[in-house]
Structure formats: structure tokens, C-alpha cells
Amino acid sequence: MNKTYPFEQSPLPYEADALEPYIDRQTVQVHYNGHYKSYVDNLNAALEKSPEYQNLTLEDILKKPNDIASEVRTPIVRNAGGVYNHMHYFNGMTKDGAEGPDPDSELAKGIDDFFDSFENFQKEFSAAAAGVFGSGYACLVASPQGWLQIMTFSNQDVLPISHGYVPLLTLDVWEHSYYLKYQNKRADYIAAWWKVINWQACEKAYKEVADKLKPFSFEDMMR
Ligand SMILES: [Fe+2]
After folding, report:
1. Which of 2, 5, 69, 80 holds its CA 20 to 30 A away from the CA of 187?
2. What is the pTM of this model?
3. Separation of CA 122 and ligand 1 centre (Å)
4. Hey, what domains does the chain have and what are their CATH numbers?
5. Measured in angstroms, how far is the CA atom of residue 176 from the centroid of ligand 1?
6. CA angle, 17 as apex, 16 and 21 as ends, to 5°?
7. Per-residue pLDDT for 216 more than 60?
8. How far is the CA of 87 from the centre of ligand 1 (A)?
9. Given CA atoms 89, 91, 95, 98 in this order, what sign does their dihedral have?
């Protein structure tokens, strides 16, 4: 997969019906082949007209959006956000997801430290996702200091990365991610999404953040 222009969709890491009955096949197909693909196509179309930015990665674009000239910034940054958010959303799910992270993982310990318990984290995350006004995302992020936090953001903003945060778990709550099956019942979609989370990917992403901080006594900071 190219890291710069021309961008490609990250491969769907499961069959379109793998998340049934929680996320239905048709929704995955329309979401992945329609919505996600459009962001990739539109980003490439915008960059085609701006060759001076074709060597930028998604992270480069999203971390420093103001480095892109204002006349062309909106389509480049907005579509890069769409690509980035959808990549994390689709990669964050799996067939037969576990009930939660491995209890021995740093992620499980981090969740206990920062949210008191996994149950409490689930409750807070679900409430945050349900409370996103209109279209957007809820995201579990690790701060540059390794702290875990829940963030929400609108449309295709990518607040976590532009502030040095690393997204660990991304939930798309745009209506296109659930309307075919759940109609207006976003809370039911959120409850179903917990059944298909790829905790291993989430644990790995958090471990990478934690490992980078280890020389700075990450374990001490967690206490
Ligand atoms: Fe989406």
C-alpha cells in the first residue's frame, strides 16, 4: 500500500459478511466500496492538481494541515481525514471479536488505570459515541504521554493526530455506518460494535506508544 500519492484503500481485513450479525454485509460493502473509496479517489483527485504535495503521507497532511496552501487545503485535508479515519475503523474490527483486551496486556492495565474498569470504559465510550452530534467519530486515543482518553470529533476531522495523539480504537458513527441495519438506533449499532472489536490490533497500537515511552519510565507514570 502506497504511503503517498496515489493513495490506495487499505485492504478489508475480512470478508464483507464476516461481522454478521452485528455489522451486516451490505453495510460493510457500501461503506467500504462506496464511502471509504470515495475519500481515496477524491484525495487523489485533489492531489493530482497539486503535485507539490504528492510526496506527503496521510500523517504529514493531517499533522500540519496549515502547511498546505489555503486554496487547496480543504479538499486535501478533508479527504485525507476520511481515508485515515476509515482505515482505522475497518482495521479495528474482526470476525469473532473478543469480549475485551487480553487481561495481561498493557492496554487492559491502562484501561483499568485511566477508566477504573473495563466496564466503566465501555460505558463512557458508548455514551461519548452516542452523544456525537450529527456525523463523526468516537476514538480511544493515547496521548503523547501515554495517557488513555476518549475523544469525539465531527465529520472527517482528525483531532487526535493533529494534537500528537495516537488513535487506538475508532468508531465511525456517521449514519452510513449503521443506517441500513439499525436505522435511527445508533445505540444498538454501538452495542453491536463491541462484539467485533479487534482487540489485538488495539493492544498492539497501545504497546507501540508505551514502548516508545519506556526510556522515560512509562511504568512509573502509570502508577
Ligand atoms: Fe464512514
Report:
1. 80
2. 0.93
3. 21
4. 25-91 (1.10.287.990), 106-222 (3.55.40.20)
5. 6
6. 135
7. no
8. 10
9. negative
pLDDT of residue 133: 93
Does residue 8 have a pLDDT over 70? Answer: yes
pLDDT digits over 26-80, tens only? 999 999 999 999 999 999 999 999 999 999 999 999 999 999 999 999 999 999 9
Q: Ligand 1 center to residue 59 CA distance, Å?
A: 19
Place of cell 449514519: 175
194 pLDDT above the threshold of 70: yes
* pLDDT (mean) for 192-210: 95
Backbone angles phi, psi at 211, to 5 degrees: -65, -40
DSSP 8-state code for residue 201? H
C-alpha pair distances (Å), 136 with each of 5, 111, 181: 25, 23, 18
212's CB contacts (< 8 A; 6+ apart) are none
Cα separation values, 26 from 8, 17, 179, 181, Å: 22, 8, 11, 9
Q: Are 47 and 55 in contact (CB under 8 A)?
A: no
Q: Give me the long-range contacts of 104-108 (CB less than 8 A, separation at least 24).
A: 105/203, 105/206, 105/207, 106/203, 106/206, 106/207, 106/210, 107/168, 107/199, 107/202, 107/203, 107/206, 107/207, 108/203
With a pLDDT cut of 70, the percent of the chain lying above it is 95
